Amino acid sequence: MAARLAASRWRAPPAAAGPGPLLSCRRWSGARADAVYDVVVSGGGLVGAAMACALGYDIHFHDKKILLLEAGPKKVWEKLPETYSNRVSSISPGSATLLSSFGAWDHICNMRYRAFRRMQVWDACSEALIMFDKDNLDDMGYIVENDVIMRALTKQLEAASDRVTVLYRSKAVGYTWPYPFTMADSSPWVHITLGDGSTLQTKLLVGADGHNSGVRQAAGIQNISWNYDQSAVVATLHLSEATENNVAWQRFLPSGPIALLPLSDTLSSLVWSTSHEHAAELVSMDEEKFVDAINSAFWSDANHTDFIDSAGAMLQYAVAFLKPTKVSARQLPPSVARVDAKSRVLFPLGLGHAAEYVRPRLALIGDAAHRVHPLAGQGVNMGFGDVSSLVHHLSAAAFNGKDLGSMSHLTGYETDRQRHNTALLAATDLLKRLYSTSATPLVLLRTWGLQATNAVSPLKEQIMAFASK
Amino acid sequence: MWGGRPLSCGNRLLGVLGSRCRGARAQAARFTGRAEIQFNWTPQTKPWVFSDYRIMWFKSYRMTFACLSRMKIHRYPWTRLYSTSQTTVDSNEIKTFLALAHRWWDEQGVYAPLHSMNDLRVPFIRDNLLKTVAHHQPGKPLSGMKILDVGCGGGLLTEPLGRLGASVIGIDPVDENIKTAQHHKSFDPVLDKRIEYRVGSLEEIVQETAETFDAVVASEVVEHVIDLETFIQCCCEVLKPGGSLFITTINKTQLSYALGIVFAEQIAGIVPKGTHTWEKFISPEKLESILESNGLSVQTVTGMLYNPLSGYWNWSENTSLNYAAHAVKSKAQEHPVPAEFVFKGETEELRDKDSTDSTNPGVQEELKK
C-alpha cells in the first residue's frame, strides 16, 4: 500500500503528543488556519469546471466546501463575439444532459450552438461510406464553441459561489499525499501547495488538469501514452452558399481524416488531422490555396483504384439484394469559399491513458485520465461522462455520510469509466491506424467493413448509442 | 497477567492445553480475581481439538461458573442498574477489543466487514429517522437530531452519522477505542464539533441523559453485553418518547455457529478470533420480546448477509445470520412491564403483540422472518 503512494512525503516532526488526542493538531500550526475542503478540483478547463459545477448544484453537497483551482486568469466576456472561435467541440446528447442538469445548457442555448442530424463518414480510397442518423431525424449531437461552453460554466459557477469557490491564477505546485492509516499522527488529508506559497487541505482531490496532468505525475500514476505522427489543423470556414448545414462530414484520407462540422448556415469548422509537415504547410499557405486544398480533399477521387471500386460495388450489389430498401448514395459536402483570417491553428495529437484513475483521496477525470484522437469527436464527451459518473458516486457517498476520499466508491467510478473509455480509446486508435494506409488489403478490408456496417442498422444504432452516452 | 499470579489447579490444567488453544491463555487470566464482575465462560477453542478428558474438565468448569453467576445474580437483583460494579460490560470482551484498538480505521484491515456494513446500516438509520420528520435540510438530512452510539468502537458508525448532520455522542467501555475515535475525528473540523466521545458504559450515563436522544444505535453490541435486559432498559430510558432504537446483531442458530464462529473466526479469519461467543447471540424473537416488554415497539427486523468474496453486505429476507432491528419508544407514558430476568433465553415465548400494542402510535411494519 505504501508503495502506491507518491514520492513526496511530508516528514512530520516526532510526535510531541502523548495521551491528548487534540494535541496532534498543534503541530500543524499553519494547517490549523487552513480550511479543510471536501473536494478540490485542480484544473478549470471544460471538464474541471463542469465537475465543480455539478458538485455545486448537487443536492447532497449543499453542506460541503468545494474549490476549483485554475491556473489562468478569469475570462471576462462582455458579450458574444461575432466571429466564431476556431476551437469547437461536438457535444453528445449525454453531455448535453449533464450540462443541463446544472443549468449550463440554457446559457449555451441563449448564446449559440448548432445541432446536427446526420453524419456521413466515407473513405478516400473507395466508394464505401457510412451514414449515421436517428430514425426521426432527432439531433444527433451539437457543435458548440469551447468558449461558449466555458462561458456558460463560469456563469453557473458564479451563481453557486456560496458552495463553490474558484481561485484563478492559482497553480498548484506541490501535492502531499496522506500516509496510510497506520501513521496515526499525520494529517489524513491531501495537502496542496499553491504557487503563492499558501496551502490547502482537502478530503478528495480531483485532477482535471489536461493530458500533461501535474496531479497524475505527482501521484506517480503510470500513463500509457504515445504521440501520433499527426497534427490537427483547425479553422473557421465560410461556405460558398448558405445551406441547411445540419450534417457533419468526415472523410478518411490516407494522410488522416478531414472533418467539416456545421456552425451556422454559412459557417463550418474544419478539423483536419494530417502529417506534421503537411499541417505546417496548410497553416502557412495562402488562403486560396488552403481553400482549394480543402475542397479537393473532400471531392477528389484521386485515391480510388479500380480493384477496390469493383470489389466495393460487388458488396454493394449483395447488400442491395438482401436489403433493397435503404440506399445511401454518397453525398458531397458543401464547398468552401473562404477561411476566416487568423483562424488557422494547429496542435499535435496523441493517445494517453492512465493506468489508474483513482488512488486514496484522488480521482482523475477528463484528459488527465485519457487523451484521444479527434476523429470520433469523443474527447470532451468522455470527460463529461467521467464527471457524470464521479458525481453520481460522490453524491451517493455523501448521502451515506461516507468519507469522500474513500476508495470504496472511487473504485466504483474507476470501474465504470475504464470499461467505457478503454473500449472507445481502443476503437479510435484502431480506426486511426486502419485508415492511415492505402495498402490494398487493408483498404479492401475497411471498405467491405464499412459497407457491411452501414447495411446493418442495429449495429449502427449500437455505435451511435455508445457514442452518445 | 497470568504469569505473575500463582496458578490455581484449574489454571494448571488449562496451562497444559494452553499451548494448543489460543483462547485458553486469556481464560487463564479470567480465573484470577475479577469476581465482582459477572462473566460468561465459554470454550473458544476448536471443538474438534478436544479429547474426552478435556471436555470433562471444560464442562465441569463451565457448570461451576455458570452456577456461581446464577447465584450471584439472584442474590443482588436490585443492584444491577445502579451499581457501577455490576455492569453489562463484559471484561473479556474488553480485552479482545483492546488488542485491536488501533486497527479500526484500516478499511482493508480486520475491521473491513464493519466498514462495508456502513453501506447498510447508515441508510437504515438515516431513512428510518427521516420518516419521523416532515422535511429535512439538503446536505444535512439528520441535522437537529441527537444520537447516542453505544459501543461506538473507533467511531466507524459515529462519523457517518455526524457527517449527515446529527449531533452524536459515542460511548465505549474501552479507553483505547475512544482515544482512536477521538484522534480520528480531530482532523475534521466539522465532525469535531458534531461528535463527542466518552469512555464508559451505558449504565453510567443513564442518570444524566434520561430522555434526551432522538435515536440510540447499538450496532454489533448486544452480542457482547452480559445483561441484555438491563441494557435495553437503559436504552429505553435515554430515549425521548417516540425515539428510535437501532440494533444490529447476530442470530443464535446452528448456521450462525457454523458460519459466524467456525468459518468466519477460525477458518477464514474474517472476524478476529475470540470476538464472538455463540452463547451471547440472540434470536430476533427473543430480542423482540425484550424490546416489547420494555415499551419499545418493533418496527422492522431485516436480515443482513455478508459476502466474504466481494466484501459487501446485502439485505436479505433471511435473519438466521445477521439482522437489523428498528424499534420505537412509545410516546404515551406507559409503565413498561417489569422485565423478568431471563438467564437462558431459548425457551422464551413470544408475547402476544396485539394486546400490548394498542397504545402505540404509528403504523407498524413488521417484517418477521
Pick out the low-confidence regions of chain A: 2-32
Question: Strand order across the biggest sheet of chain B?
Answer: 3-2-1-4-5-8-6-7
CATH level-four homologous superfamily name of the domain at 92-329 in chain B: Vaccinia Virus protein VP39
Strand tally of chain A is: 20
Q: Provide the CATH top-level class of the domain at 92-329 in chain B.
A: Alpha Beta
Could you describe the largest sheet of chain B, including whether it forms a barrel? 8 strands, mixed
CATH architecture tag of the domain at 92-329 in chain B: 3-Layer(aba) Sandwich
Structural class of chain A: alpha+beta
Average predicted local confidence, pLDDT of chain A:
87
* Computed structural class of chain B: alpha/beta
Note poorly predicted spans of chain B: 1-50, 71-85, 339-369
Order of helices and strands of chain B: HHHHHHEHEHHEHEHEHHEEEH
What proportion strand of chain A? 25-35%
Largest two-chain interface = A-B, 30 and 32 residues
Helix content of chain A: 25-40%
**How many helices of chain A in DSSP terms?**
14
Structure, explained:
The complex is a heterodimer of chains A (469) and B (369). Chain A has helices at residues 24-27, 29-33, 46-56, 93-101, 104-110, 146-159, 214-219, 276-284, 287-299, 306-322, 379-399, 407-434, 440-455, 457-467, and strands at residues 36-42, 66-69, 88-91, 114-116, 118-123, 129-133, 141-145, 164-167, 172-176, 190-194, 199-207, 223-239, 247-253, 256-262, 267-275, 336-339, 345-354, 358-359, 362-364, 370-371. Chain A is 36% helix and 25% strand. In chain A, strands 5, 6, 12, 13, 14, 15, 16, 17 and 20 form a nine-stranded mixed beta sheet that branches. With 369 residues, chain B is an alpha/beta fold. Chain B has a domain at 92-329: 3-Layer(aba) Sandwich (Rossmann fold). Chain B has helices spanning 9-18, 22-31, 52-75, 79-82, 91-99, 112-130, 158-163, 175-185, 189-194, 202-206, 228-238, 254-267, 284-293, 353-356, and strands spanning 146-150, 167-172, 195-199, 213-219, 239-250, 296-307, 312-316, 322-329. In chain B, strands 3-2-1-4-5-8-6-7 form an eight-stranded mixed beta sheet. In chain B, helix 1 (9-18) runs antiparallel to helix 2. Chain B starts with 8 loop residues before the first helix and ends in a 13-residue tail after the last helix. Mean pLDDT of chain B is 75; it is low at 1-50, 71-85 and 339-369. At the A-B interface, loops of A face helix 6, helix 7 and helix 8 of B. Chain B: Component of a multi-subunit COQ enzyme complex, composed of at least COQ3, COQ4, COQ5, COQ6, COQ7 and COQ9.
